[in-house]
Structure formats: C-alpha cells, structure tokens
From TrEMBL:
CTP binds at residues 19, 22, 102, 148, 151. A single active site specifically recognizes both ATP and CTP and is responsible for their addition. This is CCA-adding enzyme. Residues 160-221 form the tRNA nucleotidyltransferase/poly(A) polymerase RNA and SrmB- binding domain. HAMAP family: CCA_bact_type2. GO terms for molecular function: nucleotidyltransferase activity. Mg(2+) binds at residues 32, 34.
Amino acid sequence: MKATRGRCLEGLEVYRVGGAVRDARLGWPTVDTDWVVVGATPEEMQRRGFRPVGRDFPVFLHPDTHEEYALARTERKSGHGYTGFEVHASPDVTLEEDLARRDLTINAMAETPEGELVDPYGGLKDLHARQLRHVSPAFIEDPLRVLRTARFLARYARLGFTIAEETRALMVELAASGELDHLVAERVWTETEKALGEADPAVYFRTLHECNALAVLMPELVEEAAALSEALTRLARLPDDLPEEECPRWRWARLVEHLDDARQATLAERLRLPRRYRDLGRQAALTRQLRHRSEPEADDVKAWLDGIDAWRREERVPPLLALLAVDAPALAERLERAWQAVSQVEPRELVAEGFRGGELGRELARRRRAILLQDFSGA
C-alpha cells in the first residue's frame, strides 16, 4: 500500500475499503483496491492531480497508481431501482456514514494505509462467523443487493458462508415489493455473468429462486421445478479443458439448454444477452435434442450439423462434441467419427466435377448424408 502514498495524498484522510479489506482477511488474493477520501472536495482532488471518472458520484483515479478514490458520500432513496438515489458527497460526510450505505457488513470494513482496521458494523465478526448480513435496513432500498448477496454466496459458500436469516427475509421482501422490476437488464446480466464465474454458480440461481427473485428476473427458468433442479446440477458438468474465461458462457448454455427456441429468445431479450451467449445456448439445446433421441439417424445428425452451422463454422463442432461426451460419451465418439468423414466433402470438388447452383447443393447434401448413413442408419 505504500505505493499509493505520495505527495498527492499528503494531508488527505484516506481509507482502503470494500473487497480488498474483506478478501485480505480471508487470505484471498486482492486484485483491485478502492479507497475512500474523507473531508475533501472534487476541486481539491483535481488540484492534486486526480482524474475524475465518476458519472453518478465523485470518483477519481490516482495519477500514478490509477486506483479509484471516491469521496465519502451518503445516499437517499428518491426513486425506483438501482439508480433511484440522491447522492450527497461533501467534506462533512464521515467514514462511518459512507460505510453505512454499503450492502453487507463484510463489505463495510475500512483500513488505514497503515493497516489499522475500522469496522463500525461488525464485518470482521460476521467474516469469522461466515455470515452474509446486511449493514442496515437501507438494504431494502436497492434491489440490486438481492443479486449481489446471491453472488457473494456463490463465491463463498464453499467456505461455509450462509445468508443471515434477517437478511434473507429482506431479500424475500424486496422480491415481493416490485422493485426488481425496475432493474435494468444490463445490471441484472452483469451480476449474473459474474456469478457464472464464481466457484458455485448454481448457488446464485438457487438463492434467487428461494427468495422468489428468479421468478421475476428469469421466469423461464422456474416454469418447471424439476427442470430447474436438473439445470442447476448441469452447471458443474462442463466439457474438459475449457479455458477459465469460457466457463461462464458454457455454464449459461448448460442452464438454458432445456428451453425451447421461443423461451430462450424471450429470456435472451429480457436480459439483453450478448450474441455469443445466445448462440451457444441455442447450440447446446440442439445438442441436447440430439442426445435425447433414442437412436439418432443420419437425418437427425445432418439436421444437428445444419442447425449449428457446422459447414461454415466448423470450429463449433469439437467443443459441442466435448459437451456431448459429458453426458453421452458413446454417441459423441460416433459423431466425431462421422464428422471427420463428412467434413472431407468439399464443395469445390463438386464444382470441379461440373455441379452448379441448386444441383451443387443437392449433390453436396446427398453425399454428406450417404457418409452419415455409414454410422447412423435411417431411411
């Protein structure tokens, strides 16, 4: 932390806050460090070389370390949703007042640059007790906190963390209040995508379901209780050797693979899903449909290859075969063998033989089907 102390900080009352303080005491690596400045004005920060970057409240980047320094502030509910707050940032806001607006006690601890802990709301006690507990009744003013609490549980459940009963009760109350309806899609998806990258992403969706928030935010997932339970189990069953950065996308695909095209499309539109998540969800659904056929035939396999656009996007085939191997290894092996053979049929070879236009397409389909018939019988 000494690297953050320089001439630009001399005379400022500065505290490290949030996740860096929490995770250091859990023995977890800390990547980003956020700071709160008490008793300063935006003009003073800029005079010291800090660059303003905050849109909704005064946040500045340190001129050397580029860490974030926010002026101490309070918030007052003035509308609906995550953005329905009036922010008050001034030199008279105390550190305790700033920490009081935070969601959970374990996120409401601060630390001086020398490492002295400031913990007015019992965050360290809850950290030792493995409890996720709200700081104040103001928790209920921000519907995003339902998602954030569920996401933190997905991160720390393996360490034995649970949600305090009184906090869980507030989450249920928030879900019933209608406030979740005012969350913008982008904020819901940001929290959900982060949760998909946590240690136990199924815990996130299960927690939202238990407090009735999932029915509001992603109703397609709760239409059938048994289907949801099965989907949450699938999240841990991914293709081997996936890069870590790809795991969230594949977990989402596993979550929604049982949904038909219409429900996937509705859910994707509601959450404003990125295209790559939409596409993989649909491809996983097509793969699931093939897997669930009692005895796939050549036309079924060709329809699957057509559906995932394998002829133009051949890079899609190996990871989907790896996904299939998770649940149906014998079928995946047959499909891989058939794909290796059928992918050798090149349109340019047929062009060289004189095929053109529609005749070329028909002959290409005929030859591919003939090869598939060698491994998959069918009329």
